[in-house]
Amino acid sequence: MQADNLNDIQARGAEARELLVFTLGSEEYGIDILKVQEIRGYDTVTRIANAPDFIKGVINLRGSIVPIVDLRLKFGLGDPQYNEFTVVIILNVSKRTVGIVVDGVSDVIQLDKDSLRAPPEFGASVDTAYIEGLGTVEEQMIIIVDIERLMSSDEMALTDVTARA
């Protein structure tokens, strides 16, 4: 499975991929820049009853109801601290618009296939299904997230949240 992910990454082309790099705690993550619609400052959201904790609620984005997911909570990285650096990345995934809350956005980088490594294998105790691989830029390690797979997973229940909203 992990080797398949790396082969998929490399099969997307020998040229560099552009990634939006964001932070959660002390770690840096990257997502495909082509999935990003816009980046906004964090603002209050309308909570949805009985939604998982990591689904913060919904916002009205120019007439569209957009579910907001806090990735720090989703990845179990401790309690989020919302401040002036906290942002919402608005994504277009699986033919719908979704927002993710992150601690901050740091950069847009180009990562070539030689800088990619397969995600580590931890066995059944750690779910790495949403990690495409690990990238390195100079001394910086970036965890590349398959945001499409993460946002369209059954556990996200985003279709249920948007239907109730």
TrEMBL record:
Coiled coil: none
Main location: cytoplasm
Pfam families the record matches: CheW
Record-annotated CheW-like domain positions: 16-156
Biological processes annotated in GO: chemotaxis; signal transduction
Keyword Cytoplasm annotated: yes
Keyword terms, alphabetized: Chemotaxis, Cytoplasm
Record-linked Gene3D superfamilies: CheA-289, Domain 4 (2.40.50.180), SH3 Domains (2.30.30.40)
SMART domains for the chain: CheW (SM00260)
Domain of life: Bacteria
A single GO cellular-component term on record: cytosol
CDD domains: CheW
Localization terms from the record: Cytoplasm
The protein's name: Chemotaxis protein CheW
Origin species: Chromobacterium sphagni
Taxon lineage: Bacteria, Pseudomonadati, Pseudomonadota, Betaproteobacteria, Neisseriales
